[in-house]
Write a structure and sequence with these properties.
The structure holds 2 protein chains of 2 kinds. Chain A has 2 helices and 4 strands, in the order E-H-E-E-H-E. By secondary structure, chain A is α+β, with helices and mostly antiparallel strands. Chain A has one domain: Alpha-Beta Plaits. By secondary structure, chain B is of the alpha+beta class. Among the domains of chain B are: 107 residues; 94 residues, Distorted Sandwich (Calcium-transporting ATPase, cytoplasmic transduction domain A), CATH 2.70.150; 115 residues, Calcium-transporting ATPase, cytoplasmic domain N, CATH 3.40.1110. In chain B, strands 1, 2, 3, 4, 5, 6 and 7 form a 7-stranded antiparallel sheet that branches. Chain B has a 7-stranded mixed sheet with strand order 8-20-19-18-9-16-17, sandwiched between helices. The chains are: A alpha+beta, B alpha+beta. At the A-B interface, helix 1 of A face helix 1, helix 3, helix 5, helix 8 and helix 9 of B.
């Protein structure tokens, strides 16, 4: 398990959070308990299984929803 | 393609706005209906595209968002050939989103300014011994870094070579430069005003003090109160419910116009955004005034405060006590002072520092078998003698006889507001010292401000003797003051206030020895000068131990709590008015509904923004 912090472009609608949460939760290998989308700091924090998917997959799922990823950090 | 359309949302809003303007002008002047309808159709289709894409994306992850409601409404209006409505509604929705983004960015500015102070690059020593510029993420603990004049210290570390002075305003809020030399600690985010230093990295990234502060503030602004969680759950069901209601209305009344109007009116925008906006503005204001508020729950508790309990030393007083009076008993006083200094050298108690400063040059001896008696003092062996240094309770424990003269001295010292440091050698009383601390400048005025803001009780708890405590209490005009209290006594006192008297209690302390009380109180307020413990155990941190921030903090939380309530009332009120109007009035339609809806969102954001400018009168 690795934990990622993904910085997004500024989020403006609270329903964006639901959408991003939904998009990320649909991926295989995400620890759903850890997914946290913060509205004001426009960040997504989550733990994922690096054997099942990569950070690029997660970023891809988010940007497909129309939210630009500014940078991400994996630890 | 989808992304391309979404990234040009603002341009689309602009174009559709121009088209709508053309349509209306044409309608008034030439009455050429072909141009009017053509322009409106283009504006509708263009404006619907981004909304439709967003709706589709939301539905794919099983979320019924506002976009879904608006899309259905617009398509409905289009089908019944009401192009004016469909064009105006899409335009207002897009334009509203643009304004929301602009204003929301303003509310987040204060916190953004803080995070932008984070260092980004570092000069790291490579294997060949040369320093190269790298990103701060690439620095590990133990790396050696070079910091030049004017640069930001990239990590928390220790100075290896060189010296300089550092502006630590980002950590302490105090912009007076602090001198640093070999062995000094330096903090990430502070700026080297002059000199050049090499440091070894002790903590990097989010583990640094600055990193922790940023993380705290970021988490705080997104933390949710009970009320917000309720609104969240509510809005999850609210939007689908509006959809269902609109459908039922359509089936029963066969009035498509009414059904799609309900879809637009039912959008929950202001309700969902109102509370977070107040929260982020309030916390942002605090962050730029040296007050860290950890989340909206803290704001709500703090604003309803009944009693404020203070630690004395270091909180109400300067915390830098000095020896004011001394009495000697028996002879060999030079020797005794040497023993006393040797024992006190082992302690980091503030009284010990004062005693050492007072004694000055002396002969130090080796200290053995040091025993710290909690709430009493220290017992240790020096040169074969049993030395006890502490208060009256310790002397009793050590069976030290205190004669009548000494008793009178002790009484006098206490009455003068001294803390006592009594020294006995082999069970015999030798030295009595009276140590006094000064009240922090400005504290009296600050306490009066707190009272004006509605704090009912101001209480001081201290480990010091009752005489000192009473003196400080009278000077400051406190409601209650209790001395001779151990950390667990303070804890019990706070527990009683909360559990038996049902009060909301804040505890203000320095965060290290008072951490149990800080944790137990409804609101733990740490006088932090950038130390980790203080920042972590408390709910509110006053940066740089600045007591004068306290009234601002209280006033700010009260203003923020009020602001949240106003926003909830505005949001709920608008929805109610709209729903009543659609049922009982002639003038309500989709466009007006959308206009009012977007206006209410802007009103709550603007209302929240007022908090950024909040200042205590």
């Amino acid at each position: 398990m690795k934990s990622a912090t993904i910085q997004l472009e500024t989020l403006t609608c609270p329903s964006c959070m639901l959408k991003i949460e939904g998009a990320v939760n649909n991926l295989e290998g995400i620890d759903k308990e850890t997914v946290k989308v913060s509205f004001n700091s426009s960040k997504v924090k989550l733990d994922f299984d690096e054997e099942k998917l990569s950070i690029d997959d997660i970023e891809g799922a988010i940007s497909k929803m129309g939210y630009d990823v500014i940078k991400s950090k994996v630890k | 393609m989808q992304r391309h359309i979404l990234s040009h949302k603002n341009h689309i809003a602009l174009i559709s706005g121009v088209l709508i303007a053309i349509a209306f002008i044409t309608e008034w002047t030439t009455e050429n209906m072909q141009i009017v309808i053509g322009a409106l159709i283009i504006a509708s289709v263009l404006g619907t595209l981004p909304i439709l894409i967003q709706a589709y994306q939301a539905l794919r992850v099983k979320v019924v968002s506002i976009d879904v409601l608006v899309s259905i409404a617009v398509i409905g209006a289009f089908l019944i050939q009401d192009y004016e409505e469909s064009a105006v509604v899409t335009f207002l929705f897009l334009f509203g989103a643009y304004l929301e983004q602009r204003t929301l960015n303003k509310t987040r500015l204060a916190i953004k300014e803080l995070t932008e102070m984070a260092p980004e690059s570092a000069l790291k020593q490579m294997e060949n011994g040369e320093f190269e510029e790298v990103e701060v993420d690439e620095v590990d603990e133990g790396d050696i870094l070079l910091v030049k004049t004017g640069a930001k210290v990239p990590v928390d570390g220790t100075v290896l070579t060189g010296e300089g002075s550092i502006n630590e305003a980002s950590i302490t809020g105090e912009s007076i430069p602090v001198g640093k030399e070999k062995g000094s600690n330096v903090f990430a985010g502070t700026i080297l005003d002059n000199g050049t230093i090499q440091i070894v990295a002790d903590r990097v990234g989010e583990d640094t003090t600055f990193g922790k502060i940023i993380e705290l503030v970021e988490e705080a602004q997104d933390s949710k109160s009970e009320a917000e969680r309720f609104i969240d759950r509510f809005s999850k069901w609210y939007t689908p419910a509006v959809l269902v209601i609109a459908f039922i209305v359509w089936v029963i009344s066969k009035d498509i116009e009414l059904a799609i109007t309900i879809l637009v009116l039912g959008c929950p925008g202001a309700l969902v955004i109102g509370v977070p906006v107040s929260n982020v503005s309030g916390i942002g204001n605090g962050a730029s005034h040296g007050v860290l508020l950890k989340g909206s729950e803290v704001i709500s508790d703090f604003s309803r405060l009944d009693t404020m309990v203070f630690d004395k030393t270091g909180t109400l007083t300067v915390g830098n006590p000095t020896v004011a009076e001394t009495e000697y008993y028996g002879d060999n006083s030079d020797e005794v002072l040497g023993y006393l200094a040797s024992v006190e050298r082992e302690s980091d108690h503030p009284l010990a520092k004062a005693v050492l400063e007072n004694i000055g040059e002396t002969t130090f001896s080796t200290v053995e078998n040091t025993e710290v008696v909690k709430g009493g003092g220290i017992v240790a062996g020096v040169n074969g003698h049993r030395i006890a240094v502490g208060n009256v309770a310790l002397m009793e424990r050590e069976n030290v006889k205190i004669n009548d003269k000494a008793k009178a001295d002790i009484e006098r010292f206490e009455k003068n507001g001294n803390s006592l440091v009594i020294t006995s050698v082999d069970g015999e009383l030798k030295v009595l010292m009276g140590v006094r601390d000064q009240i922090r400048p400005g504290v009296k005025e600050d306490l009066q401000k707190l009272r004006k803001l509605g704090v009912k009780n101001l209480v001081m708890l201290s480990g010091d003797n009752q005489g000192t405590v009473d003196l400080v209490s009278r000077e400051l005009g406190l409601n209650e003051a209790h001395g001779n209290m151990l950390p667990e006594d303070k804890q019990a006192y706070i527990k009683r206030l909360i559990e038996e008297e049902g009060q909301i209690v804040a505890f203000v302390g320095d965060g290290v020895n008072d951490s149990p009380s800080l944790a137990l109180a409804n609101i733990g307020i740490a006088m932090g000068s950038g130390t980790d413990v203080a920042i972590e155990t408390s709910d509110v941190v006053l940066m740089n131990s600045d007591f004068s921030r306290l009234p601002h903090a209280l006033g700010l939380t009260k203003a923020t709590a009020r602001n949240m309530k106003q926003n909830i009332i505005i949001a709920v009120g608008v929805v109610l008015v709209l729903l009543v109007s659609v049922l009982f009035s002639e003038w309500m339609n989709m466009s007006i509904g959308m206009l009012v809806h977007e206006a209410s969102i802007l009103v709550v954001i603007l209302n929240g923004m007022r908090l950024l400018k909040y200042k205590l009168k």
